[in-house]
Each structure stands twice: as C-alpha cells, then as structure tokens.
Specification:
Elements lengths: L1 E7 L3 H11 L8 E5 L9 E6 L12 E2 L1 E5 L4 E5 L4 E6 H13 L4 E5 L2 E6 L4 E5 L2 E10 L13 E13 L10 E4 L9 E9 L2 E10 L6 H16 L4 E14 L11 E3 L15 H12 L10 H16 L4 H11 L2 H8 L5 H9 L4 H15 L2
Parallel strand pairs: 1-2, 1-11, 2-8, 5-13, 11-17
Antiparallel strand pairs: 3-7, 4-7, 5-6, 9-10, 10-11, 12-15, 12-16, 13-14, 14-15
Bound molecules: flavin-adenine dinucleotide.
The site of flavin-adenine dinucleotide (FAD) has 30 residues, from helix 1, strand 2, strand 3 and strand 16.
C-alpha cells in the first residue's frame, strides 16, 4: 500500500503538518503517522510572538501584550503591539491535533521506531522496526544533522524550567521577562526567562548558551533556586512541572527538501532560528509552504544568516560579550523592532540602526575570524 503522506515524527513538525493538511483543500485518501512515543506527557512549552491569533485553540487561553528585559543596570518593559506573546503547553497541542486526527478516518497511527528514511523514483520509504512503509511524500521531523563537523558553528541553548506555585502573590501576570541577566555569567551566557501565568504561578527557566551537549541539572537547579531567592525572595514554592532540554543553535546548512519525495520539517528542516531557538512560528510557515508547493529558501535572507553567524561566533568564542550586547540591544531598540529583526522582516536601514547602537569590538573580532576562516582557512 502506498500512503499519500507518511508523517515520520508526531511532535511539533509532524502534528502541525497533520493539522494544516486537514484544514487544507488538498485531496488525500490515506495518511500514516509514525512515532515511537505516545506523546502523552507535557514535555515542553512553546512560546512565540505573532501578529495574528494562532490557529490552535490551545493557544487562545492566555497571551501577553508586553515583554520585559532585566539586567543589573536597567529594566525595561514595553508594549509589543502589533504582536502578542503566546504560549502553548505541549500536551494540549498534542491532544488537540490528536483529536482532530481521530475524527478523520483517512489517518492511521503507527507506534514504531523509525530506522531510516529513503527516497525512490516513485515513492519515499520509511523503514521501521515493524517493516517498510511507502508514501508518495514523506514528512520527516525525525532526522537530526550531525553537528560535529568543523564547517559550522554549533552551540546549544540549554535550559531547566520549573512551573512554580507560590504561597503569596509575587508575579505581575502582565509582565513576562524575556531575559533576566541578573545571574552569574561564569564562562557561558546565562539568563532566566519568566513567564507569569498569574500572581502565584509562573514558568521560570534558567538558560545557558553552552558548547557542550550535556546539562548539569544540579547546577541549573542551584542557579534557579539562587535566582528565585535573591530576586524574588522565594525559598518556599511548589514545582508543578519541569522541562529540561537543549535546542541546537547552529549555522549548519540544513537541507529541508533532500529529494522529490521527502520534506524535512521542524528541527530537521532548519526551522529553528539559530540565535534564539524559536521554532514554532517557522514550522507553521514551512508547513504552509510545503502544502502550497512553494520552495522555501533562506537565499533572500542572506543578511540574516550572516548576522546569525556573527552572533553565534560571539556566543562560542566570547560568551562574556553576550550580556552587554543584549543590554545595548534592548536598551536602544524598541522591542517590536527586535522581534521583527528576529523574524527576519526588518529592512536594511533598520538593521543599520540596530547595529549602529551595538558595541562593535566583538563583531569586528568575529568578522575578522570569519574572514580568515573563509578565505585563508
Ligand atoms: C523543552 C523545549 C522547549 C522549547 N520551547 C520552545 C519555545 O518556547 N518556542 C519555540 O519556538 N521553540 C521551542 N523549542 C524548540 C522547538 O520548537 C522544539 O524542539 C520542537 O518540538 C521541534 O519540533 P520537531 O517536530 O522538530 O521535533 P519534536 O517536536 O521533538 O518531534 C519529533 C518527534 O519524532 C519522534 N521521534 C524521534 N525519533 C524517532 C524515531 N527514531 N522513531 C520514531 N519516532 C521518533 C519523537 O518522539 C517526537 O515526537 C523548545 C524545545 C525544547 C526541547
């Protein structure tokens, strides 16, 4: 049997594809979704900003109209109109799309371990521990590039997040903090992200940009406890949920369409913004581009790939410079411009305004290194 689509991986990429396919006009008869996991745990929270109301009901519960940045020297909270900041917990997303799928008899689930994805002239083939499966098109959100080559800059955004419940009201539910840099910068750029759901309820996440693919969970927990005590006076609180993870930050050249029959999506398809780890919004546009048969390239975004490389180089080689760079950036620029810059929708004049305000020394350093690497070897 040949399926119209095989969706290999039912996480963010795979389920976003299934959701948009159901709501599209595309004709199809049989879809196979393969994942080795039941997706029954709340393994992550996706936050993102958007001008439009997200298409998923699970995102409609709460949103924020301002964002904040805090450092030792200053703090700034600003309205982000026309954007709003949204959050979705993983489990609600999995359940919502699973429900949509369960109402559509054209979808079939297979719990299996994918071993290999290949492409032939007439079909794409997904090899699992339960056998071979053939599809006209395979949507692959499972493949991961080997990030151990010397051709790209590879660092990790590593984090430990707790959803905490406090006895007394503490947080301002209107004021999420994108980055709070009032933590030690010992050898790695480090900050805390605070997403307040109510005065007693928030996600607090200790984040580091690291060059190793391992997390010292105890050290991260100590840093979180210290931060909560020092800056929020908190010693006694309940932990409702925990998320621990690493997002690759890389200028590796992804191949989102390795063959006629295979599309890679999500982390596999290069949808993660290298310098921030944000992926959710890019996945949604990538899915739409696949369904509309548009080729998505970053070619017209060469400038942004270049900026990402510069910043990644600083993160890797001069991590102590990240904090002052972020301070300059958030102090001198309106939040909305920063968000559009991260969305890669600013125009060159605005980018000159952004870069004109930044401390130049680390960028020139990074540029020189890149030039030497590219041209001298
Ligand atoms: C803890 C955490 C928090 C994050 N928070 C945000 C955020 O706030 N905002 C944002 O934009 N991005 C965030 N990200 C980054 C990104 O959005 C997520 O990593 C996202 O889940 C990537 O989607 P994906 O489809 O590529 O991978 P996944 O969602 O991980 O899906 C891959 C699926 O493939 C399955 N799978 C893997 N290997 C196999 C195999 N061999 N056989 C069968 N099945 C397999 C897995 O079980 C999984 O279901 C976060 C990442 C993490 C880890």
């Amino acid at each position: 049997m040949i399926y119209d689509y095989i969706i290999a991986g039912a996480g963010l990429g795979g389920l976003s594809f299934a959701h948009h396919l159901i709501h599209s006009q595309r004709p199809f008869e049989r879809i196979l979704i393969i994942d080795r996991d039941d997706k029954k745990t709340n393994d992550r929270t996706w936050s993102f900003w958007s001008e439009e109301q997200p298409e998923y009901h699970c995102a409609h519960g709460q949103h924020w109209e301002q964002l904040g940045f805090i450092s030792n020297h200053f703090s700034k909270f600003e309205n982000i109109n026309p954007f709003k900041y949204y959050t979705i917990d993983g489990l609600s997303f999995y359940e919502e799309v699973r429900q949509e799928i369960s109402k559509d008899s054209r979808f079939h689930w297979l719990k299996a371990d994918v071993k290999h994805i290949s492409s032939h002239l007439d079909d794409g083939v997904v090899s699992t521990n339960l056998g071979l499966h053939h599809g006209q098109v395979v949507i692959d959100s499972i493949s991961r590039p080997k990030l151990d080559d010397n051709h790209s800059i590879n660092v990790w955004q590593s984090f430990l997040g707790w959803t905490i419940q406090t006895h007394s009201p503490l947080f301002d539910p209107d004021k999420p903090i994108l980055m709070d840099f009032r933590v030690t910068q010992a050898g790695a750029a480090s900050f805390v992200y605070v997403l307040p759901y109510s005065p007693n309820h928030a996600l607090v996440e200790y984040t580091q940009f690291t060059s190793t693919k391992s997390i010292d969970k105890e050290a991260y927990a100590r840093a979180l406890n210290q931060y909560l005590k020092r800056h929020w006076g908190l010693t006694d609180f309940g932990i409702e949920d925990e998320e621990i993870g690493q997002i690759p930050m890389t200028n590796h050249e992804f191949n989102p369409h390795p063959s006629e029959r295979v599309h890679r999506l999500g982390t596999a398809g290069g949808d993660t913004k290298p310098t921030t780890g944000y992926t959710f919004t890019n996945v949604q546009s990538h899915v739409k581009a696949i369904l509309n048969e548009q080729v998505q390239t970053r070619e017209d975004k060469t400038r942004f790939a270049f900026y990402d490389t510069l910043l990644l180089q600083i993160i890797q080689q001069k991590p102590e410079q990240v904090k002052p760079i972020m301070e300059y950036l958030f102090k001198s620029q309106p939040f909305t411009r920063v968000l559009r810059f991260l969305d890669e929708t600013t125009h060159p004049l605005e980018e000159m305004m952004i870069f004109g305000q930044l401390p130049w020394a680390p960028f020139i350093n990074s540029l020189t290194k890149k030039w030497k690497h590219d041209y001298i070897g």
